[in-house]
Fold:
Amino acid sequence: MKTFLINLDRSHERLQQAHAQLDQAGLAYERIAAVDGATLDQTSIAGLDQEKATKTFKNPLRKGEIGCYLSHIKAAERIVTLDLPYALVLEDDFAFKPSSLKILSQLEQKLGAAEIKDWDVINLGNIARKIYRTLPKTTFSQENTHLCRALYFPVTTTGLIWSKVGAHRFLRQAHHIYEPVDATLQRLMCASGRGLAFREGVLQANGSESIISEMGSQEAAMKNANILLRAKRYTKATSRFFRGPDIG
Structure:
């Protein structure tokens, strides 16, 4: 599977750690030079809407969150440019679990055989919870890991698999930046029902603080979001669950 690694130019140690894991796993990768939020001139960023960010999340986006968002745009653009049917995008603080490589290998086989349909993005770093549907014939080996249609899509972007269609759709929406990138993905996937996740996380963050997202979890921004926003997304997910699998 074509793999992209998002890494800041100044994060040499993280690159070494990520490279060691990928090399040991026999996974070739292409490095995406992350956008460094610390050096950004926010007035020059097209589509950045700090006024709406403050209204929605009670705080403007942090520099690192903006850099992280722009970095994921770069990765999605690369997928589209190379015309890839799907690709793995990792942030440099990922950590493989003992079962990760086996599950990823089986998942690639299913994707290559087009056994998994109607999807935009698969979240590998956080689990399907609250509202989800287990997809048929997607139990992975003896790990008892199930792939689900995550109707309430989980946040965090440690590891994502994008479909080409999903990368295109994300890029069409990414011109208006007022929330962390994982919040955008949750919003889009709750609306479309095309986001997938596992019931057990396939990989995880290595526990160190995120430099790309400026020393803090993107998930914290969602926790601070106003109750109305979160309720709206939950309501959309619930509605889609009871409507059934009409994915479009």
Observations:
- The longest strand covers residues 132-140.
